[in-house]
């Protein structure tokens, strides 16, 4: 059983040492524990700090692609490096590393495919009352949209088994937290949650400039992802919302017309006609969206099969660099697994060889 702990990073040379010091090197029920850092276009010494602190694997993106893209790149790399369980945590040391054992317990027991750490937001002292209320409201909306019971949907402290990780495909450029839960619910992934502890706040969040921006982006993300999986429901509801006022306006005009006063109320007829056209268009979007949703499901299943083929062929991770040399890492972590992943590709190229990504390698094979 191999566990890889992945950490998305962007200019985290100051916070990363404390985060890594908090992570376990060994866990009960796990044979190998390894660390992977995703460098999302850092301009500081994040990668050098990671290597110096014994990180086994590094995914080094060429520029800042965003948290969601970094998360996805990390999952892909972990799968290609042979992970059976993947834990995602933040580089700012927000989450208590000692709770990883608790986080992966349902996965190891076979009771869940994906586990989300519940920070118990209402008890976090440095969260303002407004933020706590917004977190509660947002989580309630995501629970309803995803048909799950996760109380803390914005938590980035998560564990995935191999099958769940193979199904994740994030399209958002902002954050993966909400989208991946809604996606998991719609894909019938077994989702569980466990209470976790948090550390003291070390810095302000870099993900959003203000609370209003956070609310706006998350609202758009929820609507977008839910529309991807439930377009028929979303656009049928929107069509009904527009059609009801149209019918009322038509009824108003008909009543006045029946009483011989229709000439002065033509505006009701005009506005009602405009709303009716909008309702018909929205209903059409519902049908088209439902067809596209079925197509998207087939594409997602195809992508999952492609990933399985890549794993079977031993395709190396994209943007991969070895971390600390084997001699610098504890023997129990199996740091030598990274280079071996590339040698298994069939052409002897090391993992992450320059100028050739895993996707190109898969096509060539």
Plain-language structure description:
The chain is of the alpha/beta class. It folds into two domains: 2-229 and 316-356, Spore Coat Polysaccharide Biosynthesis Protein SpsA, Chain A; 231-293. The protein is built from twelve helices and eight strands. Helix 5 (129-146) packs parallel to helix 7, helix 8 crosses helix 9 and helix 9 (231-258) packs antiparallel against helix 10. Mean pLDDT is 85; it is low at 330-365.
Per-chain topology:
Blueprint: E1 2-9, H1 16-21, E2 32-40, H2 46-52, E3 57-61, H3 67-80, E4 85-88, H4 100-108, E5 114-118, H5 129-146, E6 158-161, H6 162-167, H7 177-186, E7 191-195, H8 211-229, H9 231-258, H10 266-313, E8 320-322, H11 337-343, H12 358-364
Parallel strand pairs: 1-2, 1-4, 2-3, 5-7
Antiparallel strand pairs: 3-8, 4-6, 5-6
Helix pairs in contact: 5-7, 5-8, 7-8, 8-9, 9-10
Number of strands: 8
Secondary-structure element order, as H and E? EHEHEHEHEHEHHEHHHEHH
Q: Proportion of β residues?
A: 5-15%
Overall pLDDT metric: 85
The name CATH uses for the topology of the largest domain is Spore Coat Polysaccharide Biosynthesis Protein SpsA, Chain A
Task: Please outline the major beta sheet.
Answer: 8 strands, mixed
User: Which shape, going by the Cα principal axes?
Assistant: elongated
| Rg from Cα | 25 Å
Main β-sheet, spatial strand arrangement: 7-5-6-4-1-2-3-8
The oligomeric state is single chain
User: Termini, distance in Å?
Assistant: 28 Å
How many structural domains are formed by the residues?
2
By CATH's scheme, which homologous superfamily of the largest domain applies?
Spore Coat Polysaccharide Biosynthesis Protein SpsA, Chain A
CATH architecture type of the largest domain: Alpha-Beta Complex
Helix/strand-derived category reads alpha/beta
Outline the low-pLDDT stretches.
330-365
Q: Residue share in helices? A: 40-55%
Output the number of helix runs: 12
CATH first level of the largest domain: Alpha Beta
